[in-house]
Specification:
single chain; about 260 residues; alpha+beta
Length: about 260
């Protein structure tokens, strides 16, 4: 609509704003790749509907707790903990093809997953001026499609991570894992998550917990070999020798590979 040029500029700007806000939503909808409702509406919220991310289709067995919710995405699955407002773990199934298909263009549009109740999820404001980065558990660099890439920026896939650690040793572990998948003969299952202590601090108004440690479990289904990376969430940490599957279970209390008989 063209407004009369004879109107004062301030009146024309105010009128244009009112008309824009009153226009149909479809005319103002963001590009679908960044519209979280478009990204997540078709995605189920039960592991029974995305068994492909777990070895033999069986999810990890974690100790029971309140406010834990299962979330499926296109390329990963999350068991979300409403107490910490972070994932308890994030599961992926990687293959040579999925890594070769990975889209190097980052979406970089973080969003809060509206499938989670407001009193259980992190919000964008929680991370602002916190001093921590939003650390992916399922890495953006693993995502094989633009939609999967965009979904990986859900805060349900994030933990507060030391900035130097995120861009340093942790990034190397992620890259080394991709390189291993490219050499593997078949499917590789990767489970990543945080570990908290009684003194773990929180950030933001919603009290998002900061993990003391992060782990990444790698299981090669063709060889049945499993190992885990264990990292303190702090500056100055270095990539250390992996720990055994059994040691990871002991430290976390989670049976990540029920009935998979992993070797080490």
């Amino acid at each position: 609509m063209n407004l009369p040029l004879s109107w004062p500029r301030s009146l024309r700007l105010a009128t244009a704003l009112v008309l824009a806000l009153a226009s149909p939503v479809s005319a103002r909808t963001p590009h679908p790749i960044y519209d979280s409702s478009a990204l997540l509406t078709p995605q189920p919220t039960s592991f029974a509907q995305c068994p492909q991310f777990f070895a033999r289709g069986i999810p990890p067995a974690a100790p029971p707790a309140h406010r834990r919710r299962e979330l499926c995405y296109e390329a990963f699955a999350v068991l979300h903990d409403g107490g910490s407002r972070t994932p308890l773990f994030v599961a992926q199934r990687l293959t040579r093809k999925s890594i070769e298909d990975a889209d190097e263009r980052r979406a970089d549009r973080f969003f809060s997953d509206a499938r989670l109740p407001a009193d259980e999820r992190a919000e964008l404001e929680d991370y602002k001026r916190s001093g921590y980065s939003r650390g992916h558990m399922a890495p953006a660099g693993d995502m094989p499609t633009p939609t999967a890439m965009a979904q990986s920026f859900s805060l349900a896939n994030m933990v507060p991570q030391n900035i130097q650690h995120n861009g340093g040793p942790w990034a190397k572990i992620e890259q080394d894992t991709r390189q291993y998948v490219l050499r593997a003969k078949g499917e590789v299952y990767v489970i990543t998550g945080p570990v908290f202590t009684a003194t773990s601090p929180t950030i933001g108004r919603n009290g998002v917990k900061v993990p003391a440690y992060l782990y990444k479990l790698v299981y090669d289904a063709s060889t049945q070999r499993a190992w885990a990376h264990w990292q303190a969430n702090r500056e100055g940490e270095r990539v250390s020798a992996p720990i055994s599957y059994q040691e990871l279970v002991r430290r976390t209390g989670i049976e990540f590979l029920p009935k998979a008989s992993p070797q080490h």
